[in-house]
Amino acid sequence: MPESAPRRKILHVDMDAFYASVEQRDAPELRGQPVVVAWRGARSVVCAASYEARKFGVRSAMPAVRAERLCPHAVFVPPDFVRYKAVSRQVREIFARHTDLIEPLSLDEAYLDVTTTKTGLPSATATAEAIRDAIREETRLTASAGVAPNKFVAKIASDWNKPDGLFVVKPHQVEAFLAPLPVGRLPGVGKVMEAKLAELGVSIVTDLRALGALALEQRFGRWGRRLHELAHGIDEHPVEPERPTLQISSEDTFERDLPLSEVETDIRRLAGKTWAGYQRELQRNPGRIARTVVLKLKTSDFRILTRSLTAPHPPSGEAELADLASALRARVDLPAQTLYRLVGVGLSGFVDEDEDAAMLQTDLFDGEDDIDDR
């Protein structure tokens, strides 16, 4: 960022236990109860848990059966995304009174750049307070917010005083704020990277700083340089109001775990749903095409794998998408007896249609990730 440019003032606003809070708001008998938003059953996962349920260890993305074991007296409520989306729109309208620089991350959280605001409030802190007050008054829900000079510090800060909290990290406080945090709080540092850093004696951000930029870059390449920047609170990524579509996908959980050889019918069905979504995206953004086919699988022990193919030409239709996704099963190298509980089909790698073909990747590539159950 040029020295003459004003230092950014970023908010991260996160609704508190959003889906569960909407349910408790609309059904007074649920208030104070451990509410779990999920369908019951062996194949279901938790969409959200109220703070009363979280005291028992219930978390989102957890299997519903495990949630029921942890909190046998929990009240299970099936999700109602129509209502949640309506409330999300209300909250988004409140944001828009203050700034047009809004980057939604999901229905219940967003980044806002309030370096300059429509309201003329004297500070980013005052803006965050005004937004939280309006959310409380107009939706009868609470939100937590973090205020910081950049996005990733604001996101960490918003979690600091949850629920219904506000935490401010001023520019001169950033390094001290980050210093004692586990390295897993830095964006992009998952369990695998945490383990690699632990081998180097790194557990908190201060340890990471001590390694130095050169050592990190020698060990991890460009990602090492990025780790060094994050450890010092450096992040110049702007708030992006119009985030381009990165992936269109459909997935489904089976009624019973299946071997890989028996999922082709489901792959073809999901390819049809993904292709329909892709056609809607093309209507909104003509000339922007997806070139990468993605197959997602989740094993019976909740390990997530993805296999991807970027071909010289994008899929020409639903049938070709289904063929390519189905063929990606051959790139899964787990034992044949492995069982799977979920499959998904996606399209990604969006580019403009007139982009220089020489710039496009034409190689096969694949990836494999463990589930990140936070």
TrEMBL record:
Substrate discrimination (site feature) positions: Y19
Keywords from the UniProt entry: Cytoplasm, DNA damage, DNA repair, DNA replication, DNA-binding, DNA-directed DNA polymerase, Magnesium, Metal-binding, Mutator protein, Nucleotidyltransferase, Transferase
Active site: residue positions: E109
GO MF term list: damaged DNA binding; DNA-directed DNA polymerase activity; magnesium ion binding
Keyword ATP-binding listed: no
Cofactor, how bound (note): Binds 2 magnesium ions per subunit.
Binding-site residues for Mg(2+), renumbered to this chain: D14, D108
Descriptive protein name: DNA polymerase IV
PANTHER family tied to this protein: DNA POLYMERASE KAPPA, DNA REPAIR POLYMERASE UMUC / TRANSFERASE FAMILY MEMBER
Obligatory cofactor(s): Mg(2+)
InterPro entries (alphabetical): DNA/RNA_pol_sf (IPR043502), DNA_pol_Y-fam_lit_finger_sf (IPR036775), DNA_pol_Y-fam_little_finger (IPR017961), DNA_polymerase-Y (IPR050116), DNApol_IV (IPR022880), IMS_HHH_1 (IPR053848), Rev_trsase/Diguanyl_cyclase (IPR043128), UmuC (IPR001126)
Record-linked NCBIfam families: PRK02406.1 (NF002677)
Subcellular localization: Cytoplasm
HAMAP family noted in UniProt: DNApol_IV
Domain UmuC: 10-190
Any one GO BP annotation for this protein: SOS response
UniProt enzyme class: transferase
Gene that produces this protein: dinB
EC numbers on record: 2.7.7.7
SUBUNIT field: Monomer.
Organism: Lysobacter capsici AZ78
Gene Ontology CC annotations of this record: cytosol
Recorded catalytic activity of this chain's protein: DNA(n) + a 2'-deoxyribonucleoside 5'-triphosphate = DNA(n+1) + diphosphate
Protein purpose: Poorly processive, error-prone DNA polymerase involved in untargeted mutagenesis. Copies undamaged DNA at stalled replication forks, which arise in vivo from mismatched or misaligned primer ends. These misaligned primers can be extended by PolIV. Exhibits no 3'-5' exonuclease (proofreading) activity. May be involved in translesional synthesis, in conjunction with the beta clamp from PolIII.
